[in-house]
Amino acid sequence: MIFDLSYMLQITPLLLKGAVVTLQATVLGTLLAAILGLGLAILNRSRFRLVRHATTAVMMFVRNTPLLIQLFFLFYVLPQYGIALPAFVTGTIALGIHYSTYMAEVYRAGIAAVPRGQWEAAYALNMTRRQMWLRVVLPQAIPPIIPALGNYTVSMLKETPLLATVGILELLGMALFEAARTYRYYEPLTLVGIIFLIFSLISAVLIRMLEKRFATR
């Protein structure tokens, strides 16, 4: 098959529509993963042993099972119990839950790096636990871990093609749809690789800028 540049340019607008869906899933999945991950990290430091063990068990289970299986479970099994969500919502939740367990470990490392004297000073000032976390711990724990959190965001971006398996027309899904129509796979898949490369490079630059900004503060 001869590579046809004009055909690739012709299908670029179509694939860019799928790229928008890819970006939406990545951004929403990252927000969900960041929030859930922080919650898991805090629960993992609970004074109650049962809560700590249950949180660790959930994180181990999610991290050690394939994302694709989790996606299929949410999409095909939950509707049998009356929980039917749109495909895009299901895919975003699957990404967020899966990567929240990895981000939780990053948060854990950042929280553990906060000097013990800072915790003791917060207790000495009679701060509530909420004030201690929001004013003392998290402002010191989060800036150093931004690069690691950003790496997981880029990884999530590259995992979004799995959403095509449940019918979501993200970037790869749109490319496969077009290829199935024309029986030309060379150009669509090449363009998918180029767009993912561009997105990944832009994400890396943005993460670096964010890291520098917080480091300056």
TrEMBL record:
- TM ranges are 20-43, 55-77, 83-102, 189-210
Q: What is its main location?
A: membrane
Membrane topology designation: Multi-pass membrane protein
Report the domain of life of the source organism: Bacteria
Query: What cellular component GO annotations does this protein have?
Result: ATP-binding cassette (ABC) transporter complex
Q: Which UniProt keywords apply?
A: Amino-acid transport, Cell membrane, Membrane, Transmembrane, Transmembrane helix, Transport
> What InterPro entries does the entry give?
AA_ABC_transptr_permease_3TM (IPR010065), ArtM/GltK/GlnP/TcyL/YhdX-like (IPR043429), Ectoine_EhuD (IPR014341), MetI-like (IPR000515), MetI-like_sf (IPR035906)
Its subcellular locations are: Cell inner membrane; Cell membrane
Q: Which residues form the ABC transmembrane type-1 domain?
A: 19-207
GO biological process terms, alphabetically, are: amino acid transport
Recall the GO molecular function terms of this protein's record.
Answer: transmembrane transporter activity
NCBIfam families noted in UniProt: ectoine_ehuD, HEQRo_perm_3TM
Q: Which family does it belong to?
A: Belongs to the binding-protein-dependent transport system permease family. HisMQ subfamily.
Q: What is this protein called?
A: Ectoine/hydroxyectoine ABC transporter permease subunit EhuD
Its ancestry begins with: Bacteria, Pseudomonadati, Pseudomonadota, Alphaproteobacteria, Hyphomicrobiales
